[in-house]
Design brief:
226 residues, mainly alpha, two-stranded antiparallel ribbon, 9 helices, 6 strands, globular
């Protein structure tokens, strides 16, 4: 019986992350597989959209918040179609592999409704407008510059467009989980909106860390009681 927590950093739109989580679960054979999902996001990934109430989703929100949420969901769907992989495939692969091996699955993220409302509340009006315009611009930029073909061989490099209307740039998908890239993206979000970064990064990190520690305690108690 092990009492350690193994963290696996993944990219939700990376095929290599799907293979990595499967390999780690096969190798480590954990008692519990925890994924960065809440029940709402898990149901959405599973396609159980009928479990959601529009009235409930809009409660405590605003039209702009609903628009932002819808635009982000559209970006994910379009990105998945272009890259040939569904966003969140890494987490669904972890769940499937855990179920195959008889491992317990735990959802350890804060409810998406809480995170989105906190995220929106902590942004200024100007930041909200810039956020919506940036998402719309990102949607319009998708599908452009798909790559170069030469000498009968495709030389396409999959890249992710990040930034806004005036600061957009591309990042190679294979580098999305690199520490320097992750740090840079986090710093850019903090510069864009410190409050939004607090809600999206710091608060969720604290919530997930607390969930993992509590899950560890519960698992150890259960295993020692056998």
């Amino acid at each position: 019986m092990q009492d350690n927590i193994i963290l696996v950093g993944t990219g939700h739109i990376l095929e290599k992350s799907v293979k990595e989580v499967e390999a780690v679960i096969d190798r480590e054979e954990p008692d519990v597989v925890a994924v960065e999902l809440c029940e709402g996001r898990y149901n959405a990934l599973k396609g159980n959209v009928e479990d959601f109430s529009i009235k409930e989703a809009m409660s405590g929100g605003s039209p702009f918040l609903i628009l932002t949420h819808w635009l982000l969901a559209y970006v994910q769907r379009k990105m998945g179609a272009e890259l040939g992989i569904e966003p969140g495939a890494d987490m669904m692969a972890a769940i499937k592999k855990a179920e195959e091996k008889g491992c317990e699955v735990a959802l350890v993220d804060r409810p998406i409704q809480v995170t989105m409302q906190r995220f929106w509340k902590k942004m200024t009006f100007l930041e909200k407008i810039k956020m919506i315009l940036s998402i719309i611009f990102a949607i319009g930029s998708m599908g452009k510059d798909k790559g170069v073909v030469g000498e009968g061989k495709e030389k396409e490099e999959k890249k992710l467009m990040v930034g806004g209307m005036s600061t957009n740039r591309e990042i190679e998908l294979d580098r999305l989980t690199d520490d320097d890239v992750v740090t840079q993206l986090m710093e850019e979000l903090r510069e864009f909106s410190p409050g939004a970064a607090t809600a999206l990064l710091d608060e969720r990190d604290a919530y997930i860390a607390g969930s993992l520690l509590e899950l560890q305690k519960q698992t150890l108690r259960r295993l020692r009681g056998k």
